[in-house]
Amino acid sequence: MTEERLSFQAEVSRLLDIVAHSLYSEKEVFLRELISNASDACDRLRYAALTDGALLGDDSGFRIRLVPDKDAKTLTVWDNGIGMSRDELVENLGTIARSGTGAFLNSLTGDAKKDVSLIGQFGVGFYSAFMVAERVEVFSRKAGEAQAWKWESDGRGSFTVAEAADEDAPSRGTRIVMHLREDAGEYLEDYRLRQIVKTYSDHIAVPILLGKADDAESVNAASALWTRPKSEITAEQYKEFYHHVGHGFDDPWLTLHWRAEGVIEYTGLLYVPKERPFDLFDPKRRHRVKLYVRRVFITDEAEGLVPSWLRFLRGVVDSEDLPLNVSREMLQNNPVLSKLRAGIVKRVLGDLVKKAEDAESAADFATFWDAFGPVLKEGLYEDYAHRDDLLKLLRVRTTASDGALVSLETVLGRMKEGQEAIYYIAGDDRAALEKSPQLEGYRAKGVEVLLLTDPVDEFWVGSVREYKGKAFKSVTRGGADLAKIQGEEPEKKDTPPEGELSSLLAFCKLTLGDQVKDVRVSDRLTESPVCLVADDGDLDMHLERLLAQHKQLGAGPSKRILELNPTHPLIKRLAATAANEGAKPGLEEAAWLLLDQARIVEGEAVSDPAAFSRRLATFLERGLAA
Description:
It is a single chain. With 626 residues, the chain is α+β, with helices and mostly antiparallel strands. The chain has a 9-stranded mixed beta sheet, with helices on one face. Residues 97-105 and 112-123 have low confidence and may be disordered.
């Protein structure tokens, strides 16, 4: 028998140390994780056998067996599920968090408490065995294959894979043998194993047997939790099923359990997590809801069962109407699946709207929105049919909310007389947005402005366009329209004579040339001397930057409008200079410095850093000499 030694992926020794010593507050949950994996293996074979009955052979009854051996100090978890080939052993057990491992490792901080929550969100259930075991052996034979394989590791950075002798390996499925640590002897006691199974895994639909003999005792209810009446299910059982089906380590934020009868019949048991799943923003945008047909697992990748903007959901949907032999390909165009999707979305949105409109749950809903609001916003531009309900859920931070989340209805109720639009500003950071010069005029008049900081915001705003007759309008685009709004009137300040101001505007246009689209007087500035804005027909500035970062801006950046604040002392002085002395040598440098200043405030790079530095030095020198 040839044995091959391989290294774990990346910094697995570091991760295993965290898992073994910090991940769980109660070590006993290692058994929950291994039983959950065994149950999944049985589900997958049950589905595969629908099209290839030979895979079951003469062993059609699925089961999970727990075998404690006090003499050898081993605990074995044994299932007759689908099993693993050599390559699958290497891939599944040699890699921690194999989807997006690089990003996962980069997120680890070295602080055990912080890293625990990240690992918990990502899911590393098998490795919890090393909390109680100093060495783990895995014997596995994939259904339909003759050769069995053995995987072994002490969890310290490497593992071995070799062919397994027939007498050591199961005829089908996987046998995990844990050589327990000295302080883990309690997990060899039958009463302790019964207690753990009853606490964490009673909902598992596969019988869990304790002992070697064929008449071994079944220690779980072995019935699908979602098929039981809600009145018979405890909160603790719901929570443990969430841990099983969602592979999460947090508690569910919301539990939805219902049975639909009528045109189609199905049962749903869905959960909204409390914490963001680690792969929430994976580009594939896949959901993780398992589809069953009459208690038989079909797939957890049924495209179209749940919209991508609800991909944070975890749980199961069990249909009575789909055929048992349905394939994943057939599901894509199945009308029953479309009805299931419609029913799921209606139920989930209905319950979320109730939570959103409950004043007593405002803080709780804000926690949910911070975690999953960016994903729900995708539905605002992707799913017109559910846009109204999603707008009821929408929460935003504004210039008037002091950091709190508020609804659009609240913003609508606080609009000023004469205000014809809901104003917003988009960017990457709320603190930076609140300091933006484009907000000065709105803040002076007491006009509330939405502060949008998620990348998706630019897209849903452009798609929705209006809310209850009030258009969404960016404060960084077009005219400010502040003169029409009856709000708090800012303090009146002197402005330069019309002739002086016109001379400065004309000089700046001539000097800056094609670097700007126009130079004009600003209605929106009250404190800053200058700002840049987009023309009405152009892309919003933040959206253009986003598209440019992803190389989606074909025609290149648009030219911006440079706005000057006529009440600012600097602009007054420059206006007087332009009118009285014409093209004074320092005025050209001033025009370029105003443009560079506006770009810097927007977070953009100046077009020519060397020229900017030279102009600034010259300007300061002249100022000091005067």
